Amino acid sequence: SDEEESSSTESEESEGEDPSERDLARIYERRIQWSVHKLAHRRRVVEELVSDLLHVSRERFLNSFFPVLQPAIGVGSACEGWSPQEEKDVVYCMLVPLKPPCGHAFRLGLGITGEMPQKGMCVCVELVCTCTGEQPGSKMLCFLHHCKEEMMRNKEPSLLHTLCTGPYLDAQKIALWFQKFVTSAWEEMLQSHHYSMKVLPSTRSCKLKLKKAHRKPLLVEIIFGVQQGDSDIFLSSQHAEDLVPPSTTWLETYAVAEAMFFQHISRKAPRHTCYLKCLQLCARILAGTGFSPYTLKTVVMHLLTLIPLAGWCRGDFLLRLDDVMEYLRCCVEEKRLNHFFFGNEDMPKEISLPTAFQMAQPINLFQNLVENPKAHSEALLEANNL
């Protein structure tokens, strides 16, 4: 079994180690290994659920002028295989890319927030001619070149008249539309025989609480995104913790690129690597400190490109934990932690970024420490204590 194999491998790797270190490593290994496996199992349950939901939506909205829902992408810490939260509070986040329906196009423009990282943008919905693309016998009308009377008789309003405010795609209207769809479609789902489902209040996403008898609830958040070109950078309906933008402003997100990065590492890494366990344990250590989970994830992503993947095996677990904390301390001391996706020369070629990201100067996530000496002193004290 996996457990026996794990125990056998641990004894082989423990030879020559200090007994106290070996015991500590084994305790961390066992508890964090369980947590990582549990996250992976529940993520697969969520992926299947959302995939089934989207299958029903494609059938229900076929030939409509609602956004075309693409296959979901698991994003965020839980879908990457780690979490700063206790099991009961873990939220599995799935990003559903939106494509324009026939006769429509999306054009991206700057919104009210133009700073990087996480600038805000609007998604302008434009009507495009479909006359030349009409199939013989098709009843599809062109929004640009058929008269209003014909369009009224067709009884299919354009996307501009349903989920937009003015010419702009409205994140709140899309979230409400999808919440209503999930409520009405749940009985068609196979999962409805095993789970009770409740749609939780949310203005810019669809939050679901699934409950199975005698099991902890499963929390799922479905967010919506518009892709920037053919890159792994999206505009997201989800708002930032400290910023709730207008409903027509979508915030740039790097969550898909981060998910792609962890998938890339997973494909390249040898079996039984410990980087997810390092993330999991460090996230728990940093809970309640001034260092955010995103700061920790950025540190580990940098280290995964600096330290060969062969150096993340089980026997190196405590060494890598020390590296994570020391890298964080050095960044605080130097008042500089570079954002992973801007001007990073070590970016794996499998991650697709807009040219502007590749050519940009690195963005400092610790800029506040440069500008605020008191915050820097406090952060340095905290990092040294850690």
UniProtKB/TrEMBL annotation:
Membrane protein topology class: Single-pass type I membrane protein
Region (Disordered): 1-22
Keyword list, A-Z: Membrane, Signal, Transmembrane, Transmembrane helix
Locations listed in the record: Membrane
Biased composition (Acidic residues): 1-18
Keyword Transcription (UniProt): no
Main localization of the protein described in the UniProt heading: membrane
Pfam families (UniProt xref): Mab-21_C
Domain (Mab-21-like HhH/H2TH-like) ranges: 291-362
Keyword Transmembrane found: yes
GO cellular component entries: membrane
Family: Belongs to the ITPRIP family.
Descriptive protein name: IPIL1 protein
